[in-house]
Amino acid sequence: MLFYVLAGLVAFLFWYKFIRPLEHFTKRGAKQSKPWPLLGDDWPILLGQKTATNILTGMYNSYPNDRYVGFYPLSQPTLILRDPELIKQLTVKDFDHFTDHRKFVDAEHDRLWSANLFALNGEKWKEMRATLSPSFTSSKMRHMFGLINDTAQDFAKYFQNKKENLIEIELKDSFSRYTNDVIASSAFGIKVNSLQNPKNDFYLTGKQLIQFSLLRIMCFAILPMVAKFFRLTFISKSAGEYFESIMHETIKTREEKKIVRNDMINLLLENKKGKVSNEAEPTKDTGYSTVKEYSDTTKLKSKYYENLTNDDITSQALVFFLAGFDTISTALSYGTYELAFNPDIQEKLRKEIQETHEANNGKVTYETLVNMKYLDMVFSEILRKWPPIPAMDRTCTKNYTIQPVNEDEVPVDIKVGEVCTLPIMQLHRDPRYYPNPEKFDPERFSDENKDRIVPYTYIPFGSGPRNCIASRFAILEGKAVLYHLLLNFKFITTKRTTTSFKFEKLSFQNKVVGSIWIGLEKL
């Protein structure tokens, strides 16, 4: 008898925990997918059939006339926001209802991860954002540009110094070393050259730092008690300790010896002393893709972070690494690949680079780079077709109701803790907004055409006050390396260049299986 009672109890708990939630949106009058228990819509990922982007794209395309649709990644009810006006409404106008990202890790188990800007929630996030925003303005990026440009020059020189006229390079590895070196110099205050010294500790530890996959995220999402019991973290203990040691030693040396360097550490140390202001900046912004900074975060009187600690600085430098290492290197890999297959676009961009170089007597400055219109068009198109993050989430922090607009809609309630998804890549490749979306076409961002882009259909760095704080930095590091490479090389296809991609199933980014090869032909 006891066995049947226990079996019934287990069955009820299974139904309540894993079956009942799968009708979440149907009960609220919204259309939804047909999920399975435990992993919801993510079973094809575990079975190696689809990527997370494939699943989201399938859902997005299956409901072309709907403003939103429900699906269940990892069995969690999640609303896909398909309509640009609805995205604006939830991420900007009613941002105070959706201020947070989805939380995976308890602060007590991963102090470094939980203290960074991406992971912070509520007032702590708002105060940290207000504290950090003055360090990421265009004028501050202008001061930091020299470090970025030096690294980009070193990257191009490495290949220039080779004897061969045609050098085959694997883009994923090469650009990951470039972004690593930019971040090492700009965020951690140390100079490394990961092409000349491929096994340097900073690069190898950084690679270790970013090795978290969908399997690990699934464990946090589905089995949080197991993750908690085994004290799983997003950031490996050894990698975290390595970067903490570097940062604390650098801060100590600079404070004792009063060393000043135009890098992120210096800006954060100045911030720590209350010496960085969010001034009205006359400096021209870095490009079309640059995100807007919103007044409710820049004008906030910070209390919680009025005394920025060394641990706070370390956490922000770490998320800077996590956000900039794989994302921009991946976008650069795809962008360079696109240019190799589009020689007319490449030649037009090279002509602008050469003319700019000659007009400025070979000197590259922040102003020369950001004033290059066609370079901005090309980089904007790279971020359209290959956004660094294919999707972004927002967690409801105050109960909210999406009011009906279309005839077949009803009011849809979103409760505290429930998640909405911004389908960035799907919007960027929607033919309603970008005709022939698979075509690489920088003319979409010409002066004549960019005003026709529907607002909130181009969001490579997110939307609203919770957008990417470092978009200016990312754009500069991408443009700088393209400038120096195209000044000296022609990108061409070789026998090793593939004509199609297969993507890793267990990655939440669009990572290619295997290698991406092109040739650098000296001019």
UniProtKB/TrEMBL annotation:
<dbReference type="GO" id="GO:0004497">
    <property type="term" value="F:monooxygenase activity"/>
</dbReference>
<keyword id="KW-0560">Oxidoreductase</keyword>
<keyword id="KW-0472">Membrane</keyword>
<dbReference type="InterPro" id="IPR036396">
    <property type="entry name" value="Cyt_P450_sf"/>
</dbReference>
<dbReference type="GO" id="GO:0046872">
    <property type="term" value="F:metal ion binding"/>
</dbReference>
<dbReference type="InterPro" id="IPR002401">
    <property type="entry name" value="Cyt_P450_E_grp-I"/>
</dbReference>
<keyword id="KW-0349">Heme</keyword>
<dbReference type="InterPro" id="IPR001128">
    <property type="entry name" value="Cyt_P450"/>
</dbReference>
<feature type="binding site" description="axial binding residue">
    <location>
        <position position="468"/>
    </location>
    <ligand>
        <name>heme</name>
    </ligand>
</feature>
<protein>
    <recommendedName>
        <fullName>Cytochrome P450</fullName>
    </recommendedName>
</protein>
<keyword id="KW-0479">Metal-binding</keyword>
<dbReference type="GO" id="GO:0005789">
    <property type="term" value="C:endoplasmic reticulum membrane"/>
</dbReference>
<dbReference type="InterPro" id="IPR050476">
    <property type="entry name" value="Insect_CytP450_Detox"/>
</dbReference>
<dbReference type="Pfam" id="PF00067">
    <property type="entry name" value="p450"/>
</dbReference>
<keyword id="KW-0408">Iron</keyword>
<keyword id="KW-0492">Microsome</keyword>
<keyword id="KW-0256">Endoplasmic reticulum</keyword>
<keyword id="KW-0503">Monooxygenase</keyword>
<comment type="similarity">
    <text>Belongs to the cytochrome P450 family.</text>
</comment>
<dbReference type="InterPro" id="IPR017972">
    <property type="entry name" value="Cyt_P450_CS"/>
</dbReference>
